Amino acid sequence: MGIHVYLYADCERISPEAWRRVYDESKQVLQAWPNQPMRLGYGTVAGLENIPVYQRAVEMDCGNGRRGWRVSGDMGTKRVAEAFHFPESFGTAAPGTPPVGEDLLVTLARRDDARARSSLFGDKTQGEPYHVLIVAIATLVENRFPGVALVRGELSWRDGRDACELLHRALGERFTPPVFLDDTRMRERLLPALGPDATEAAVRCLAPPTFSQAFRDLLPALLDTPAARFGRELESLVSCRDVKTLGVLPRFTVLEAGRMIGKMVRRMEIRARFFDPGTGRGRKAALASIVRGTGKNRLWLTEDAWRVIEAAPPDELCFLLVLAHVDSNEWHRRMVFRALFESAALREFAMSQPEQRQKAVKRRPGSSASRGPDVVDMMGCSTLGSDSLFGGGEK
Predict the structure, then answer these.
(1) Which residues contact 59 (CB under 8 A, 6 or more apart)?
(2) Is the pLDDT of residue 395 over 90?
(3) What pTM value is reported for the model?
(4) Strands 48-55 and 5-9: what pairing?
């Protein structure tokens, strides 16, 4: 389940030279995207090598002397999903060879997957902000190789429109949205090969799903429920630069997380164990424990976040050290914890003193009793033991 973007292409009808021109254009589109694209790669953190890190350098060596780019999110929103890879080298046709053969749309309509399955894209954006960027790259390929490349997925007319606008800004040309978003264009291409009945069946199969008027009327109400709004606010926490922009409930959630983590830092005497002169394990050991904890919980951070963390003062490192080792498998907890690693402003707010907390969140009578236990359960800090923080060694 999820929001996929598929890009099919027949490599036997695309020459390497023509593909290379499209690859160069795709890099122009990446550069035109307002938020710097990023990929999950491997870097050095606190002297430790091969640590998963979200990086700005999206072009990479793919092995065997081949290159390409990979994108799984953007640095502006820091929102991520699955990775999309676009190769620099693709296609086997001789230069100048006309793309003779069956329209790929007809091939898919016949469900002849064997020829259509040169799939360049097929992963999930989950509708994250970089979704439009990926749709734009796929639309570029379909426009440059009509009948030889095809875009599909959980796309809307708005996605197609936004993708074409991005391509126009980047390349200065007008582009056509993916054909499967337009029933009329699909019929024009399918009818000569399939006939009327098969064409209508294919259009119903290939076109994006349609929803009843009742569902369209209900959807705004579903998206406006308190739970839905809270979920969207948690997703946006990771790019928070100003805590004043947050709603009351996200602020309260962050403060409760900070309160519980701070309590554990004091109970487990983290500062004394790592930073007491002469007896503490030292800054390097604290950073190594943070790296180990985030790796165990698969909390991959951006290179920007690690740069700030490596320079953080002792109290902040103690906070992050405990945070890194608390189980983050539950979705709400994961959103909050990753945001605390990525946003220095949010971290400062979470570590604020009690009197500052009371000013930040004005609670209505009874709200503490009703909300507190839910947030405590959500954060799941009660099961953390010393072994995970200290690597199973001396306590």
Answers:
(1) 27, 67, 68, 69
(2) no
(3) 0.86
(4) unpaired
